[in-house]
Design brief:
CATH superfamily of the largest domain: NAD(P)-binding Rossmann-like Domain
Strand order of the largest sheet: 2-1-5-6-7
Number of helices: 10
CATH architecture of the largest domain: 3-Layer(aba) Sandwich
Structural class: alpha/beta
Number of strands: 7
Shape: elongated
Length: about 290
């Protein structure tokens, strides 16, 4: 019951963004296809005097960002607030530039500014309105450990499970790969389950999904592993689910929920630095020391 209002607001935002994207796409299609006649006088004031150019720009600058926002809001993906701010600001900017070129004002212009401003406001209020924010202090406690079990490590260099394995190893951690389908990963013995590891494990990073992530959390608790990281990258929930987070809480584990470790392993590469900056802007991750436990 607690999450239903958030769910409802999220769907309203998605529908509103979808309608805005649809209207913008319709306008873009009309300009490109010649279905909308803006008259010779206004056409001469367009860049290159080209309605086609204006239609393509409208599609890319307004319709596309709002379509992306609609998809993110509907599915509840992280970054919805930031996407709403971005799309709304683009709409307002589009209207300002359009009026500057056309040198005429219609009733639609202030209406669109109000709509764009509303999306900016909603986006700012939604920043941080996520179910599982990242606890940066828990990140620091996790990264102070040494021997880390990587559940979902991969021998395939094309997969992120291998990228994270190498990143942890290159940063001086002793990584214990866990994957039932591999005997070893880059010369390191691989175990089928956390329970199969003989020596002590300081922490565990889970890169498996669904029920496998919940089972791995329980195995970690049974082994006395207190520090657990539920991995989530871009575009996928990863190990994060209501069940896996509940299992961490049930067993009193110190959990990092929903983050990619490459955002925190120093020195952070540019793409991951941007990823972290966006998450902090969206209040999905606060700087270490900013929360009280």
């Amino acid at each position: 019951m607690h999450h239903q209002p958030v769910f409802g607001r999220r769907r309203v935002l998605a529908v509103a963004a979808g309608l805005t994207a649809l209207v913008a796409a319709g306008g873009a299609t009309g300009l490109v296809g010649g279905f909308i006649d803006i008259g010779d006088r206004l056409q001469s004031r367009l860049p290159f005097a080209s309605p086609v150019f204006g239609g393509v720009a409208l599609a890319l600058i307004v319709a596309l960002p709002f379509a992306i926002l609609a998809g993110r809001a509907w599915s509840g993906r992280p970054g919805t607030g930031a996407a709403a701010v971005f799309a709304g600001a683009l709409l307002v900017g589009w209207i300002v530039v359009e009026v500057a070129f056309l040198r005429e004002l219609s009733f639609l212009h202030p209406l669109c500014v109000v709509v764009g401003g509303a999306f900016v406001v909603v986006g700012l209020t939604r920043r941080g309105a996520i179910e599982h924010p990242v606890d940066a202090d828990a990140v620091e406690r996790f990264l102070r450990q040494h021997r880390i079990a990587l559940v979902g490590a991969s021998a395939d260099t094309r997969k992120f499970g291998n990228t994270v394995f190498r990143a942890l190893r290159d940063h001086g951690y002793e990584v214990v790969p866990i994957n039932s389908r591999s005997a070893e990963i880059e010369g390191t013995k691989c175990h089928a389950r956390v329970a199969d590891v003989v020596d002590e494990i300081d922490a565990a990073m889970l890169m498996v999904t669904g029920a496998a992530a919940v089972d791995a959390v329980r195995e970690c608790a049974a082994r006395g592993i207190h520090h657990v990281w539920l991995f989530r990258g871009v575009g996928s929930p990863g190990a994060v689910s209501t069940a896996s987070v509940a299992a961490c809480r049930q067993h009193g584990l110190d959990a990092v929920v929903g983050a990619c470790p490459l955002m925190f392993l120093q020195p952070v590469e540019s793409v991951h630095r941007v990823h972290l900056a966006v998450r902090r802007f969206n209040r999905e991750c606060a700087p270490a020391g900013s929360r009280t436990r």
